[in-house]
């Protein structure tokens, strides 16, 4: 077991380079199942969610070769099974994309529901609504989702709720279906566009990704491809918030500034100075942090995956902020730990009311999920004293080399092995 130890109170200064996008990688990797050739994917982040998906592909029968640290060559033609057991899906939410990919390739899939962060109930009804519209039957037996289709035929699918996962799964299932599929009220996240670009680079015919109507003309075959995935919007946003929260000056490199607009806007409102370059963003703050209200929304709104980090920053802002979580129903669990560090926050349903305090103080805390873990790191960086964070494995799911990256911009942060406390001998 490991824990993070942070000595707080140091502003962050310097440059940090952002890795490839987790949420793109976990969609694009299963999409290689649809290819009749070899796929070389560059800018793969070295994080445990991605490792879990690559391992699953390998265990299913794909040939996987790392060409260098961030480039992987995958030949999925060797996959002969349509069954993905819980041991393979439990670690990562993105493993749900094996449903769409397997259904497209084999016209059947038997898949355990995905793991990932516990953010409340995470239904898959919109995914299955899409599969059914394409002609599949959907049953759940013994904890496995059983999908079958004689053939997949394009259809018009209206998403009752904007869902990233369902949009991706329907894209995967329909890309080789007969005829035209139209996804209305589709998610517009950057990784939806990235997946569409990846599939189009293999010969797919997908238009409109990034808008709320995606049109997919089914094609018979998809070839191999070379593709570089985009940089991670949320990793970038996390370093931006950390820079502003600590009163530092950080150049966040290898980013797409357009993807960060909602985060930049809120940081500016909170008193940070933002400078945009072609593929970098500089965030600095010299004045006092000011309150601001934030509402999480699907892209291009403020991302729910940045909510815990932003709440942490606002916990030391001047005034009372209101943060409304509209995407997930259980994403404030980490606030218990912020209050242990001296934050004044009250949660009422979907709203957190944050009365800014002068400073946070150290406390033993936990990373309750991936982004909550990032929030605890930011809390540790701004707190007085030495903060210890347990359950670090959640953070490792989504942040490549975060100890090194934070250290390089001046954080006093380290990872230590914890020894188990000896159990009393009860005979
Ligand atoms: C993805 C991201 C996650 C991000 C989230 C929202 C990946 C691997 N994960 O998660 O990091 O926080 O988008 O940007 O890309 N919903 C339904 N029925 C469904 C599916 C979803 O009601 O069938 C609801 C969910 O409960 C939630 C909302 O739709 O309230 C959005 O969820 P969704 O966009 O699907 O999130 P994920 O794809 O799970």
Second-tier CATH architecture of the largest domain: Alpha-beta prism
Distance between the termini: 26 Å
How many discrete domains? 2
Give the strand order, joined by hyphens, for the main sheet: 22-23-1-24
Strand content: 25-35%
> What ligand molecules are bound, each kind once?
uridine-diphosphate-N-acetylglucosamine
In the CATH scheme, what's the topology name of the largest domain?
UDP-n-acetylglucosamine1-carboxyvinyl-transferase, Chain
The poorly predicted ranges are: 422-427
CATH class assignment of the largest domain: Alpha Beta
Q: How many DSSP E strands?
A: 24
pLDDT averaged residue by residue: 95
**Net shape:** globular
Taking Cα atoms only, what radius of gyration do you get, to the nearest Å? 22 Å
Number of discrete helical segments:
14
Give the biggest beta sheet: 4 strands, mixed
CATH homologous superfamily name of the largest domain? Enolpyruvate transferase domain
Structural class: alpha/beta
List keywords for this structure.
alpha/beta; disordered C terminus; UDP-n-acetylglucosamine1-carboxyvinyl-transferase, Chain; binds uridine-diphosphate-N-acetylglucosamine; single chain; 25% strand; four-stranded mixed β-sheet; 2 domains; 427 residues
What do these coordinates show?
- This protein is α/β, with parallel strands linked by helices and 427 residues long.
- The chain has two domains: 2-19 and 231-417, UDP-n-acetylglucosamine1-carboxyvinyl-transferase, Chain (Alpha-beta prism); 22-228, UDP-n-acetylglucosamine1-carboxyvinyl-transferase, Chain, CATH 3.65.10.10.
- It contains 14 helices and 24 strands.
- It has a four-stranded mixed beta sheet with strand order 22-23-1-24.
- Helix 4 runs parallel beside helix 6 (164-174) and helix 8 runs parallel beside helix 10 (307-314).
- The longest helix is centred in the middle third of the chain and has 14 residues, at 233-246.
- Uridine-diphosphate-N-acetylglucosamine (UD1) binds next to helix 1, helix 5 and helix 6.
């Amino acid at each position: 077991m490991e824990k993070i130890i942070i000595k707080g109170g140091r502003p962050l200064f310097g440059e940090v380079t952002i890795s490839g996008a987790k949420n793109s990688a976990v969609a694009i990797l299963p999409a290689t199942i649809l290819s009749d050739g070899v796929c070389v994917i560059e800018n793969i982040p070295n994080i445990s969610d991605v490792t879990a998906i690559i391992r699953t592909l390998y265990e299913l029968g794909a040939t996987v070769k790392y060409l260098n640290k961030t480039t992987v060559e995958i030949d999925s033609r060797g996959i002969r099974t349509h069954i993905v057991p819980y041991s393979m899906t439990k670690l990562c939410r993105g493993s749900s994309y094996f449903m769409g990919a397997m259904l497209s390739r084999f016209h059947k899939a038997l898949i355990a529901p995905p793991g990932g962060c516990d953010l409340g109930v995470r239904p898959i009804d919109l995914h299955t609504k899409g599969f059914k519209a394409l002609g599949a039957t959907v049953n759940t037996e013994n904890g496995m989702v059983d999908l079958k289709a004689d053939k997949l035929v394009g259809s018009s699918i209206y998403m009752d709720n904007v869902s990233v996962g369902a949009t991706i799964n329907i894209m995967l299932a329909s890309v080789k279906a007969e005829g035209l599929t139209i996804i209305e009220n589709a998610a517009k996240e950057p990784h939806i566009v990235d997946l569409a670009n990846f599939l189009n680079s293999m010969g797919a015919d997908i238009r409109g990704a990034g808008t709320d109507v995606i049109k997919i003309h089914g094609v018979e075959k998809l070839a191999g491809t070379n593709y570089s995935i985009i940089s991670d919007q949320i990793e970038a946003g996390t370093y931006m918030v950390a820079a502003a929260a600590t009163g530092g000056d950080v150049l966040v490199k290898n980013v797409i500034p357009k993807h960060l607009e909602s985060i930049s806007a809120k940081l500016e409102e909170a008193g940070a100075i933002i400078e945009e370059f072609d593929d970098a963003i500089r965030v600095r703050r010299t004045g006092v942090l000011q309150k601001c209200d934030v509402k999480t929304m699907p892209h291009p709104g403020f991302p729910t995956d940045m909510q815990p980090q932003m709440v942490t920053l606002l916990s030391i802002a001047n005034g009372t902020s209101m943060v409304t979580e509209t995407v997930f129903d259980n994403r404030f669990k980490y606030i218990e730990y912020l209050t242990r560090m001296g934050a004044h926050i009250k949660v009422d349903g979907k709203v957190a009311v944050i009365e800014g305090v002068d400073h946070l103080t150290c406390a033993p805390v936990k990373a309750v999920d991936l982004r909550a873990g990032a929030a605890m790191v930011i809390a540790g960086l701004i707190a007085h004293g030495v903060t210890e964070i347990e359950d670090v494995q959640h953070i490792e799911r989504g942040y490549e080399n975060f100890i090194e990256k934070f250290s390089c911009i001046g954080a006093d942060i380290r990872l230590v092995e914890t020894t188990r406390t000896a159990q009393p001998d009860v005979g």
